[in-house]
Q: What sequence folds into this?
């Protein structure tokens, strides 16, 4: 069967599988329901300062696995829900940024610069519409690039890269992530080293579970979800709760989307160039592992500001320019599709949201993100490719929901900014710990999560990003396994990372990335 | 003598830990060495990957030492007190969660907790009390609010979470019932 057959099967898996109810005699599949549910939850979460898409993805995942189980047909509903959250949170983050000058998610920070002055001028509805249109446009653009690039890149990797090259590519990815995330290359490397070390505990090929110090409860290794949720979610909760102690009395005044109904059509010629430019910037940045949506938003805004200043239009950026909102929202939303390019084609997660998608794939099984996903078998179908095209379809379904209903939901969730963080975060914490427990059924897993939470807290306090830790933890086992296989396949060649021009180039680039960033930054 | 930058302290601590890892922990706690020879085939041993992790830590520590960040980020005494408070709070709340149900069952019944762990109200006792203490305690630690209000919110939220897991899923066990 050819690629087009796989596309059709993926499409059918989203639209026709397991209808849960029918509308006018047409069955609505479980995947569509889950994508819509995830999208609405994502908007609510994005609109709640202190929460973020990855947090909701982390808490939802164990619940979703409890509902759908570990069968292969669980993948699309679960991934559809997580993708819905990812996309919804990006849109929702703009709501409190515009209405209350409080970004719901870090990447919506630049939206406050122009969105809030617009709300103060009684143009909140206009600002929300611009944010919604730009976000949906950026997201859709990014998804189109993903669909076009991921299969192509995966086929190239599968065709031209052998085991030593794949090991060198993993090394390059880790070096890149450790070097570009956070404010210091040294701290990025420490974070990565700790992640690699955690990945090595109780793994390996020998009968003895290495690095367990004889502790029986470590003999099964560190539970993936416990370490990731601990460092990424629990650590953030610990830090945010402490920050609240010095942030007393901060209250937001409720200004629920003032201003009269406003059509965006007359403004489109001035907004579209900014939306398009920022979409390209966000998509390119999103495709690089480890470089997140906050940088995309900052770059998109800065470039748009320079261009806007040249035209001399008023209001200027920072004083309530709709173009500023458009540039930021298009840039941060266009990261979400392209950050799946390294996930699907190489199996390398680029940001926290991608980490939870990979965690879902690994927990459920039946889908190993990487070059093999897009390999055409000589006969029959490749189920992984069907799921990949189903995933693409689910993303476009989420975009359709965003274009049609996203704006309506956005205007309803402003009230979430009033939820007190001091109460919400402990509830999120208990929910996270309970989610871990129902998955592992051991109190030890809860303690391990809390221990990694403390590690995540310390990392944040010393200015070290926890993301290299998490990505190294996920990729550590794969790196070791690929290197072992490459070592065996090359007959024990100690120079396997330099054994071919491509492997040599990747390894040299890994060194260069670190050196370049060390020289360029403090 | 010039005072060390906080990043230099961090680099120093990580360097010491990485050296202990490389020269003490890995040699003592792995089954095979860096390279193994099995039937004339040379294979990578279990100690190689952790050693690479230790080398990455050493490199990171040295770079952090040599190029400390311009903006100071460090653990303060207040941060350490906060961590201690968290440890105390979790020891208390998770201790209640783990042991309260079995304790009450031991006092009030002849059977003990295990046969009752999936029956109402026993299965909720530890989770409800421990969860309430966790939510109320952490909220109180972060912002001053009336404790009775926080206990009420904590109890309602804990029971809502318990029911959200327990009612739709027969096979799931709330903490700590999977351990008992």
A:
């Amino acid at each position: 069967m050819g690629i087009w057959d796989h596309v059709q099967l993926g499409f059918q898996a989203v639209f026709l599988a397991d209808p849960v109810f029918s509308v006018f005699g047409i069955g609505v599949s479980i995947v569509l329901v889950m994508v819509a549910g995830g999208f609405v939850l994502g908007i609510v979460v994005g609109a709640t300062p202190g929460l973020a898409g990855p947090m909701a993805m982390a808490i939802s995942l164990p619940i979703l696995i409890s509902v759908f189980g570990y069968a292969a047909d669980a993948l699309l509903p679960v991934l559809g829900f997580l993708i819905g959250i990812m996309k919804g949170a990006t849109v929702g983050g703009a709501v409190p940024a515009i209405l209350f000058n409080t970004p719901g998610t870090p990447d919506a920070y630049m939206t406050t610069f122009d969105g809030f002055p617009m709300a103060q001028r009684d143009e909140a509805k206009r600002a929300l519409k611009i944010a919604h249109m730009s976000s949906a446009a950026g997201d859709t653009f990014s998804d189109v690039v993903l669909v076009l690039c991921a299969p192509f890149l995966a086929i190239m990797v599968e065709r031209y890269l052998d085991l030593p090259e794949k090991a060198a590519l993993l090394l390059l990815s880790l070096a890149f992530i450790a070097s570009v995330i956070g404010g210091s290359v040294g701290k990025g490397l420490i974070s990565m080293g700790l992640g690699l070390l955690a990945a090595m505990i109780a793994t390996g090929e020998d009968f003895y579970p290495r690095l367990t110090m004889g502790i029986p409860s470590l003999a099964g290794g560190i539970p993936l979800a416990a370490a990731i949720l601990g460092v990424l979610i629990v650590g953030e909760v610990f830090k945010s709760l402490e920050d609240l102690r010095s942030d007393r009395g901060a209250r937001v005044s409720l200004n629920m989307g003032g201003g009269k109904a406003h059509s965006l059509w007359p403004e489109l010629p001035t907004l579209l160039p900014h939306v398009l430019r920022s979409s390209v910037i966000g998509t390119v940045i999103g495709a690089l592992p480890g470089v997140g949506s906050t940088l995309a938003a900052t770059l998109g805004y800065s470039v748009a500001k320079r261009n806007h200043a040249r035209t001399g239009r008023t209001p200027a950026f920072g004083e309530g320019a709709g173009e500023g909102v458009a540039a930021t929202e298009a840039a941060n939303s266009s990261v979400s599709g392209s950050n799946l390019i390294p996930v699907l084609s190489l199996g390398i997660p680029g940001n926290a949201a991608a980490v939870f998608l990979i965690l879902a794939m690994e927990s459920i099984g039946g889908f190993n993100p990487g070059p093999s996903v897009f390999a055409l078998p000589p006969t029959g179908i490749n189920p992984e490719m069907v799921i990949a095209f189903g995933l693409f379809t689910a993303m476009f379904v989420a975009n359709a929901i965003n274009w049609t209903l996203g704006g309506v939901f956005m205007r309803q969730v402003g009230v979430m900014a009033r939820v007190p963080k001091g109460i919400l975060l402990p509830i999120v914490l208990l929910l996270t710990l309970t989610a871990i427990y129902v998955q592992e059924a051991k109190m030890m897993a809860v303690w391990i999560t809390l221990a990694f939470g403390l590690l995540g807290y310390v990392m944040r306090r010393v200015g070290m990003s926890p993301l290299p830790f998490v990505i190294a933890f996920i990729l550590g086992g794969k790196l070791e396994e690929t290197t072992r296989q490459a070592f065996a396949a090359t007959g024990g060649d100690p120079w396997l990372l330099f054994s071919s021009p491509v492997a040599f180039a990747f390894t040299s680039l890994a060194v260069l990335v670190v050196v370049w960033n060390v020289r360029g930054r403090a | 003598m010039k005072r060390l930058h906080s990043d230099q302290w961090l680099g120093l601590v990580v360097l010491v830990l990485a050296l202990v890892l490389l020269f003490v922990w890995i040699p003592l706690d792995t089954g095979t060495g860096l390279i193994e020879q099995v039937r004339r085939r040379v294979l990578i041993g279990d100690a190689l990957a952790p050693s690479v992790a230790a080398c990455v830590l050493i490199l990171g520590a040295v770079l952090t030492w040599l190029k400390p960040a311009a903006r100071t980020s460090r653990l303060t005494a207040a941060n350490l007190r906060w961590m201690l408070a968290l440890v105390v709070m979790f020891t208390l709340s998770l201790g209640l969660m783990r042991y309260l149900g079995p304790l009450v069952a031991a006092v009030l019944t002849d059977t003990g907790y295990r046969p009752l762990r999936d029956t109402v109200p026993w299965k909720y006792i530890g989770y409800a009390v421990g969860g309430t203490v966790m939510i109320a305690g952490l909220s109180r630690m972060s912002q001053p609010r009336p404790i009775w209000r926080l206990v009420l919110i904590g109890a309602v939220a804990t029971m809502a979470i318990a029911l959200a897991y327990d009612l739709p899923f027969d096979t799931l066990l709330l903490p700590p019932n999977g351990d008992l």
Notes: The radius of gyration of chain B is 25 Å. Strands of chain B lie at 35-38, 41-44.
